[in-house]
Structure formats: structure tokens, C-alpha cells
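Form P-L/3: holo structure prediction, ligand adenosine-5'-diphosphate.
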Amino acid sequence: MAEQIKILFLSSEVVPFAKTGGLADVSGTLPVVLKGLGADIRLALPYYRIIREGGFKTDLLFNRLEVPFGREKLSANVFVTETEESIPVYLIEREDLYDRPNLYGNSMGDYYDNIERFTFFDHASLKIAEALGFRPDVIHCHDWQTGMVPALIKGPYSESSVLSGTSVLFTFHNLGHQGIFPVDKLYITGLSADKFFHMEGLEYWGNISLLKAGIVYSDAVTTVSPTYAREVQTGSYGMGMEGLLYKKRSILHGILNGVDYRLWDPATDMHLSANYSLSDMTGKGQCKDFLIQEMGILPSLRERPLIGIISRLEAQKGFDLLEEIIEDVIALNVGVVALGTGEVTVQKAFENAVKRYPGRISFHTGFNEPLAHRIMAGADIFLVPSRYEPCGLTQMYALRYGTVPIVRATGGLNDSIDRFEPRTGKGNGFKFIPYNSSAFFQVLCEAEEIFRDKKAWEKLMENGMKADFSWGQSARRYLEIYRSVMDV
Ligand code: ADP
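OUTPUT (holo model):
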């Protein structure tokens, strides 16, 4: 039997401990599936305030562990907790860095010291492995917050008795977040400028990019859908990294994220007022009634399509297209329920729309997990009109809830949604290709028309609910890639 593979899995957010988006969903589920496939997998996280307040049972593991920080050493207390599946999670306590209201920033923008916060996290994670004598075969890093790790492994830790020779896989979940910081902060990382600060290294137009560090110094790179892996090698989607990613194409893989059906299944979802499944759909109607009431949508719209939105509100997500055509959308006599938080301008656009069309559009701001589940279940249509979307999870959740996705054909949206053909009864949603509001409106009209044909709509819902986007296959792909980097 092959020896048990050992993985240190580093991500700055993990369900159920801390979440701002899909990264947390992935980091909460993939390790569980990998463990099920036989891996010895361990996680580390900053001990954010939200985790301190989460009521998790923790034990002190290391008192005042010394962690390099610039030319000095700072100490951190390290606690350990476990997931339900007995996966160890090391929590790095530094109140000055992590005991804050949010993970990354506040309404004024990102925290000014994020490079300090996440470089410390990266170093501390490696120091924990050393102190435990845990020699991972692969360190699997996610996004810019852990992008320093591959460089550290190739630099200061190449001499480590525990970590030298460890392979590193870097997964980027969104090229829009590049971890860019001024070069005068390089000293914090402990990396020598001569060796690392140049165009073939982590230098990015005169600054440091932690995302670039992750891509450059890892043994393989993955992203979260096959389409996005291709798109990022082009100028339209590469966000300045396209040249580098094209060069790395032989070690760049696209693996579609999976869905955690333990959390996202209308048959068992504990947040719903009624559960349902393909064999008995009555609960979905009840969920719609409840949502209409909860969100203050006009009861007269009960028989009309109810459109759901759950999203970080950033330019990436494409809601400017909806704003452009909102009058025409409302003229279709539909209801819209939206949940989101993010950029003030996008939020304002939703608030203005609610003022113009009370009872037809309803918007809830903030991060609200239970409401997200109720929207998934109660809506008929789910919108994801993204400018770009590395994978996107919500459209896959929507499918399982019998809520028909309308998406832009990009990244993982393109890989998971197939256009419905009424003639053949094949397909699970609707998608538009060019990023403009008329293409978007055209598919909305198409969906509205099919909605009126109850039989066709039922078939469409059924196709979505039967689809299987669980993690099994993707997790096996990760294992293959782990094994391939171990051999390099
Ligand atoms: P991204 O990672 O870009 O945010 P994904 O579609 O991959 O997009 O994942 C988004 C995740 O965050 C989903 O689980 C979605 O339900 C959740 N989410 C986004 N905004 C909110 C919100 N305001 N309240 C609750 N959950 C949210």
C-alpha cells in the first residue's frame, strides 16, 4: 500500500471557522475529502476574533513559539482545535495582528499591515510544522495570503531539518487579489532582495506581489476551473500575470471546485422552513412563500419568477449589467431578492433600485449564511453575471436547490452550466457570452419565457438537481498533482 501522504493545507479562511467567500468553502471541504481518501492533512489559521468568539474547543499547543518577523523574532501562542472529522487546525494567536473585527479590512479598505499579518501567518505555520516535527510531503497554499510560503521554502527554510525539500502546490482562487505591497516592506518577509526581488521573482512593477511569489516558487500551480486556467493565460483575464502563467502552462492545471452537499442540500438544509427533494418538491413552494414574505416582495408576484442573488458585491460580479437594464427586468414582472456586501458603489446601486421598485426588488446587506440558504431555496432563478469567475460555487448550489442559474459564460460558470435546449430537454441553465447588458437581458427573457412552460421548467430544474458536483473526482485530481510534485 502506498504510504500515507502528508499535507499541510494553508488557507486564510476555512469553513466553519472563518469565511468571506468561496475560498472558505473549498478549504472547509477539500481537506475532509482528502482525509477520506487516506491523507494525513493538517490546517493552520490566524486566530481571528471571529474564531475566538466561535466557541470552538481549543487546547494550548505551544506557548510563545518564536516566529521570524523581519530581522527580529516575535512570539505567538499556538492553539489546536479539530474539525468534526478530527482534522487538526492550528490557531496562531497574536492579538495585535488578528484580534480585529474582520479578516482583511474594514470600510476604509484593506488593513494597512496585511503583509505583516499574513507573512507572520506563513512563517508561523512553517514554524509549527518544524516544532511538531511534521514533515509534509506537500504544502498546499491558497491565494496571496499564503503566497510567501513557496518562496520561504526555496529560501530560508531550504536549510530546515524538517521542511527542506518539501514540495509546494499553489492554488489561486482569484487573480484579482494579488497581494501587492511596497518594496520597502520586503524586509518583513526575511527574503533577501538579491535573490527574490527581480522580474523572475516576486517583483511586480516595482512592488512585491505575494500572489506572484506563490506562482513563481511553487512546484505546480492550480486554479479552480479548466476554463479559468485557459483564460488567465490571455490578456483579457490574466490581470498582468498572463505572461507568467503562459510560461508556467505545463505545470498549471484547472480543477473545478466541488460542492459540500452536507451543507448545501435542500433535503437536509437546517436553515429552511421546509425541506424538499426531487421526489417531493412541495417544500420549494413553501420556501418561496416564506422568502417573499421575509424579503417584503409583493404577494402578487407569487406565480412569477423570483430572481435570487447572493454575492460579494465587487465589480467582478457583474451587477453593473443588471443596473443598466433594471427597468426592463422589472417590466418582466419578476421579483428580485439580493443578499450581498462589499463595495459601497455596488451596494448603493442595489439600494437605489429598491427605492425605485419597492416590493419588486429587495436587498439585504451584510453577511448572512442562513439567509443565503433561504434565497437558494426560495428563488426560481439565480443570477451570476460575472465579468470573470474563477469557479463560482453559488451556481452549483443553485442547481441542487432547483433554482435555475443564469450566468455569464466564463471560468467555472462556463464549465458547470450548460445551456438548456427545450427541444432536447438537455441543459441545466442559461448563459450569455459577451459581457454586455443586451446579451444578459436576452437570456433573462429566454428564461422568463421557458418559466411559463411549466413542463419545460420542471425538466430544467430536474436536470440541475440531478447533477453531481461533489468533490470526489476533483479531490483525486489534487492527490495526483500532490504525487506528481513529490516526484520532482
Ligand atoms: P467568491 O469566492 O468569489 O465569493 P463563490 O461563488 O465561489 O464566490 O463563493 C461565494 C460563497 O460566499 C458562497 O458560499 C456564498 O453563499 C457566500 N456568500 C457570498 N456573499 C454572501 C453573503 N452576503 N452572505 C452569506 N453568504 C455569502
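COMMENT: The longest strand covers residues 59-69.
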